[in-house]
Amino acid sequence: MVSLKEAFAIFKQAKLVDLTHQISETSPHFPALPALEKKDIFTLEDGFHVQQFKVVGQYGTHIDAPVHFVEGGKWLDELPLEDLFLPLYVLDLSKEVAENPNYEVRVEDILDFEKKHGRIEAAAFVAFRSDWSKRWPNQDAIRNLNTQGVQETPGWSREALEFLIKERKVKALGHETLDTDSGQTAAKNGALLNEYYLLEQGIYQLEVMANLDQVPATGSFIAISYPHWEKATGSPVRAFAYVEQ
Questions:
Q1: Strands 85-92 and 125-129
Q2: Which of 98, 132, 147, 205 has the fewest Cβ atoms within 10 angstroms?
Q3: Which candidate, 54, 152, 142, places its Cα nearest to that of 104?
């Protein structure tokens, strides 16, 4: 059996990839929500520097707890700590998204991935790489509105979510866009029904992820951290991947 000390030594040899965007008052965000506010309460002239931050939970790279959409769902503080350190699988569909900004992850994409990389293990974190994060920090490019004011953005299909959650028993999912649903699907349904479905299953998701192009399809691990809020529906996070060198 490998000791924690031996495992630590192995992880210290890994490359770290930051999966989060740096956030500021001008960061792209869901337009109905206010931007981050930051101000000095004390400065070094007072003997110490203290800042005050005012920010919504769903800002920048963030985690959504089930209660974000679902009545009676888990709050952030009810998520098990062991679910914040998971094997990371990255579905690279960046070429498909480059050709079609409204592309949705399909079950066929997942099966093709598994033919090449092996079956996605249970209790894993699966991220959808679209390279949409390369549009950061341009709000207009991130939202990508068409002439009708509808977002043309990629997302997860309901079938792909059902497959990963029911058949592969994943613990969490993530993506680079502001929403789980593609812009076209959200507009058609008049709501984020795929996001509701995901959170209704009792798992969490990360939104607005970054640097997935620096992470291999398999073999890495994701670690996620955020303040220990009481009764929070979501929070900005610092997430990073351990990548074997």
A1: parallel
A2: 147
A3: 152
Q: For the chain, which residues make up each domain, given as ranges? A: 15-22+56-243
Residue that has been written with the tokens 């959808």 in this structure? 128
User: Using an 8 Å Cβ cutoff, are 92 and 129 in contact?
Assistant: yes
Using a 10 angstrom Cβ sphere, with 0-12 exposed, 13-18 middle and 19 or more buried, the burial of residue 23 is buried
Write down the CATH number for the domain with range 15-22+56-243: 3.50.30.50
Q: How many CB atoms lie within 10 A of CB 119?
A: 10
C-alpha separations of 145 from 102, 113, 185 in Å: 11, 30, 14
Contact 153, 196 (CB under 8 A): no
Categorize the per-residue pLDDT at 170 as very low, low, confident or very high, splitting at 50, 70 and 90: very high
CA-derived radius of gyration, the chain: 18
Which stretch of DSSP H or E encloses residue 9? helix 4-12
Euclidean distance between CA atoms 63 and 236, whole angstroms: 6
**Does residue 1 register a pLDDT over 90?**
no
Q: Which two tokens stand for residue 96?
A: 């498909």
pLDDT digits (tens, 9 = 90+) for 22-66: 999 999 999 999 999 999 999 999 999 999 999 999 999 999 999
3-state secondary structure of 228: coil
pLDDT digits (tens, 9 = 90+) for 54-112: 999 999 999 999 999 999 999 999 999 999 999 999 999 999 999 999 999 999 999 99
Q: Which two tokens stand for residue 136?
A: 């950061």
